[in-house]
Each structure stands twice: as C-alpha cells, then as structure tokens.
UniProtKB/TrEMBL annotation:
One of its GO terms (biological process) is tRNA threonylcarbamoyladenosine modification. This is tRNA N6-adenosine threonylcarbamoyltransferase. Binds 1 Fe(2+) ion per subunit. Its main location: cytoplasm. It comes from Bizionia arctica. The gene is tsaD. Its EC number is 2.3.1.234.
Amino acid sequence: MSSQNIFILGIESSCDDTAASVIHNGKILSNVIASQKIHEEFGGVVPELASRAHQQNIVPVVNQAIKKANITKEQLSAIAFTRGPGLMGSLLVGTSFAKSLAMGLNIPLIDVNHMQAHILAHFIDEEGFNKPPFPFLAMTISGGHTQIVKVSSYFDMEVLGETIDDAVGEAYDKSGKILGLGYPAGPEIDRLAQLGNPKAYSFTKPKVGGLNFSFSGLKTAILYFIQREVKVNPNFIKENINDICASIQFTIIGILIDKLKLASKQTGINHIAIGGGVSANSGIRHALKTGETKFDWITYVPKFEFTTDNAAMIAIVGYLKYLENDFSKQDVTASARLKI
C-alpha cells in the first residue's frame, strides 16, 4: 500500500483560515495556515470578509505548501478539499480552486467532510501519537460544532449526540464577550481559568436528554449572573476574572465529560478521541487524562496543530479515500450544512 508514491494536496477553507497541506503516504510534508486577523475587531467571523480573504490567500498558501513539501505540482496524485460544513462563501473559494487545479493537472478530485476530518486527524502518521483502534468514540468540539460520534471504521461514523443550539466554542466566545475579553475568547478563558478557583461560582448544567448538548441556557445564566453582580459591585469582573473564568470552564468541561461518560457506558467503548479547535483547551485535555484512571478510558488527543482548522486533516482523509478510489466528479458542489 505505502510502496505507492501518493502525494495528496489538502485544501481547507471552511471558516476564516485558508490552509493547504501536502501528505506523502500518510506523513505530513507541509501544513500551511493563513489566519485572518480582520475578524477580531468585529468579535466574530464576518462571512463576506472571510471569503474575500480566502480569495487573496489561497494561491500563495497552496504554493507555499507545495514548495515546503519539496515537490512539484506535477507530482501530486490528487487534490482533496473541504466540501462542508462551513460558511458557504468560504467553502466556494476552496471548492472552485480545488476543482480548477485538479482539472488543470488532470488528477482526481476528492471531497472531504470537515467534521470527519477532525476525527480522522488521529490517523496522521506522527511520532509519539497513537492511533485509536476501531470502534472508538470521538468528541468533536469547535466554534461551530459539538458532537459525540461512534467511529466503526474510517468512513463508518454515527453521530450519537450533538448540540441542539450553540456549540461549545460559541459558549466560550459569548461568555468572553460578556466579560469584555477579546475574540476568540476560548484560549483567554482557558489561560485565566488556570489562575482561579473552579468552584468559586456555580452555574446550573442544562438538562438535555440522551447524548445531546445545549449551551444557550448556560450562556444566559452567565449573562444574568454577571449583570446581577456588577449591579452590586461595578468592579466585580475585574476583581474576580480568574475565578469567573475557572468556574465557567469547570461547568463547560463537566457538561462534556458527563455526556462522554454516558456514551461510553451505553456503547461499552472505552477508547475516546477528541478533535476540533476547543480540544486544544488545557482543562479538557486534563479532564480526559483524569478519565483514564477514573473511568478506565484510553484517550487520544491529536497534536496541537491538528486540532484547529487545518489542511493536514483534509489531506489525510484525501489519502484514505484515494486508497479506496473514492473520487469526486467535477460537478461536486460545496455544502454549508453537510452532515457526517
């Protein structure tokens, strides 16, 4: 299988990062990301600005990925790209670029589901990182998604539970906005949480049946709590920021771990993998490690650079699909609400 010389170019443009990566027989040769700083001043991603920035970034980013991989574009075996889910305008830039490049080079085109890619990032050949055995449970947590997925093989995935409203990343960002923190707020809350007392304030966990999640009620509870306290003491946020962040983080992680415990119990699967941008959070990583001794879990956390939106995860899915001759037609279209 790996005696073949397979070079896959992966292109990711689902949100506000333009990324390209070259993979050779499962090993990453390059992983280039151009982030868009412009959204920070708006406190969130502006779709129109995002797609415009993708148009400016995509040629230099792809060019750099091929250069860094030390190959020529003629050596590429196929082009893999994010078909969805994501922002329509952003997806269209990556999709049309990938289609044109594949056509120009006369090589296969492979469409990739962004959420599957977050899970399959675990199969990138990376020293010191184990690959989960099938079946395993994957929890994908990001700005736009919160899901628990049963993974029976590379392309046999079943969503067991997902958020019915906000994603976990949104809960972080909206809490950060309430506290006057910058965007994205997740890393900042994580940093401040490590300096505070997680039990300083308690927030009610939402009651949601089965393995589904809900974060909008928690966000509202945090808002009312802050408004109430600031009325009494205008300096409340400033004086207690570490404790507030620690308490918010403690609650969010509690919600995630409770559902994982339930999923593990229901399926009898104790191999747990995480992916998505929020899996870079130190509190979540620590809670998973604790789960190993507490609940007899075997956990898998991808390398930091493969957790946020990146093209290496798109390239590895492209590689796995290439091995199965699973190619796309030229009339493939982007899909903003693509399901696993």
